[in-house]
Design a protein that fits this description.
The protein is mainly β. The strands form four sheets. Strands 3, 8, 9, 10, 11, 12, 16, 17 and 19 form a nine-stranded mixed β-sheet that branches. The radius of gyration is 17 Å and the shape is globular.
């Protein structure tokens, strides 16, 4: 069962993770790691495979208000079989999760949308900067630098700068190449104020103080 977006932004809550291959069960707090602010010139947002511009969509999937928006990566710190502690990114958020009154699954063309991260490096981007971002994505040396700064499952969002601003943030899911659920956060007046990419790590976990995690309800058409 997919994790509800409400839990993916439940920063400060403690989760239990079942025993994993070669490891033991663990508990970990979900912490919010701030990322770079992204400037949306038109408010339109694209969810991209950052290093695969040939497959980028032509149309924006989400619209927020124009302007600068915060980004946040939800992170848990888990032990590996040798006892070392590793950070694991759980969900990337563009916008103000604290203003969200309800989350809705993003629906595009009548189907739940999933962000395709075939190269293992995803991005949440300003649609108005697509041409400039395409130049960056075609520069293998530049993208190798972005990949190095954002290792798989890392605890950071990496800025992709265009001119004097940040036009996108890159993230590297711990599950690697896959497709990931996307949710849109609506405020009390029904305006879109946040977009969240669920990178699946909390899917099999439970809150320490709850045997019944909430499930996502409703859809947000494009």
């Amino acid at each position: 069962m997919a994790t509800s977006p409400e839990l993916l932004v439940a920063y400060g809550r403690t989760f239990t993770f079942p025993e994993r291959e070669g490891g033991r069960a663990a508990t970990a707090e979900l912490v919010a790691v701030p990322g770079p602010e992204v400037t949306l010139r038109s408010g339109d947002v694209l969810l991209l495979d950052a290093w695969s511009p040939d497959f980028w969509p032509q149309d924006a999937q989400v619209r927020l208000s124009p302007g600068r928006h915060p980004t946040t990566l939800g992170v848990v710190h888990l032990p590996d079989p040798d006892g070392a502690i590793w950070p694991v990114g759980c969900a990337a958020v563009l916008g103000r999760a604290d203003l969200v009154a309800a989350w809705r699954t993003l629906v595009v063309d009548g189907e739940p949308f999933r962000a395709d991260v075939g190269t293992g490096l995803g991005a949440v981007a300003d649609a108005a900067a697509i041409d400039a971002l395409r130049v960056l994505a075609d520069d293998d040396d530049h993208m190798a630098t972005v990949m190095d700064a954002t290792p798989q499952g890392s605890d950071r969002l990496t800025a992709m700068e265009v001119g004097d601003g940040v036009a996108a943030v890159a993230f590297a899911p711990s599950q690697g190449s896959w497709t990931y659920p996307v949710h849109v956060g609506l405020d009390d007046e029904g305006r879109s104020v946040a977009v969240l990419v669920d990178v699946d790590w909390l899917e099999e976990s439970n809150l320490v103080d709850s045997d019944h995690p909430a499930t996502a309800t409703g859809d947000a058409p494009r």
